């Protein structure tokens, strides 16, 4: 089975009804937000969607966990081969940990016949699934796996912290993906390294926990990349993460771990789009969302916190 990874940064999500294969010898795979749909298998259309952004994230496996279950334990690739499929086209929008790991499980599906390699893959996928389901707000006791994952996905971390991710450039994303792939294969084959986690936490100047402790507003650039793990250890369950961009805009992620937390992200996104009608669109689900990857946002920290408080206090839209 041949596998091709297609990376389309900055592209809008595809409608499920138009995502299909036109060649019976090829199947199309959408991962982690590429298609506007929960995970679904559509053999008649030659289309397979793996996604965990719709519904309660804590009730679902992250995308990589879903792919692990179907590729390794569900024998999806072998089943497709038996149906005459000889090529998989795998589509992703981003190269974050969950999307990239999912794509790599498909690309190297033959490796998982080895118990040795599989014994390295499963702990990594389970750790990443927990972390991604919680939007990073997860403190894991088995930090050795986290340290290995930090080394594997370090090219993505640098892309994000340097601001190059804002360019949404396909060539840059592809180079980073290939660098992650090399590290991933080294780890699977027992030659991987580990990096210490950076838990340094810096909040935004406008944020005052005494005014509202139901969420924390984090300065993403000034904080360590693994600050969310420290927040989880502190018991924080909702955040607004802000990174100032070179073009004067900001990149913002907002999220909550549990649907029981009052910061409903779907409602937050409605308010954010009303407050800032274009050119970019705030997107996300019920638990995590953010500003437009291409254009960022010009909403101030004060405006973001005001929206969060409106949502949590139950003010209708």
Overview of the molecule:
It contains ten helices and ten strands. By secondary structure, the chain is an alpha/beta fold. It folds into two domains: 2-188, no CATH class; 216-312, Diaminopimelate Epimerase, Chain A, domain 1, CATH 3.10.310. The chain has a five-stranded mixed β-sheet. A five-stranded mixed β-sheet has the order 6-7-8-10-9, with helices on one face. The mean pLDDT is 94.
Tell me about the largest β-sheet. Answer: 5 strands, mixed
Strand content: 15-25%
Q: What average pLDDT do the residues reach?
A: 94
Please provide the ordered H/E string of secondary-structure elements: EEEEHHEHHHHHEHEEHEEH
Radius of gyration: 19 Å
Q: What is the overall number of helices?
A: 10
List the helices and strands and how they pair.
Layout (H helix, E strand, L loop, with lengths): L1 E6 L18 E6 L8 E3 L4 E4 L12 H11 L2 H7 L4 E6 L4 H11 L7 H19 L9 H10 L1 H9 L7 H19 L27 E4 L7 H7 L4 E7 L5 E7 L8 H11 L7 E2 L3 E3 L10 H12 L5
Parallel strand pairs: 1-5, 2-4, 2-5, 6-7
Antiparallel strand pairs: 3-4, 7-8, 8-10, 9-10
Describe the structure concisely for a colleague:
This protein has helices at about 65-75, 75-80, 95-105, 115-135, 145-150, 155-160, 170-190, 225-235, 265-275, 300-310, and strands at about 1-5, 25-30, 40, 45-50, 85-90, 215-220, 240-245, 250-255, 285, 290.
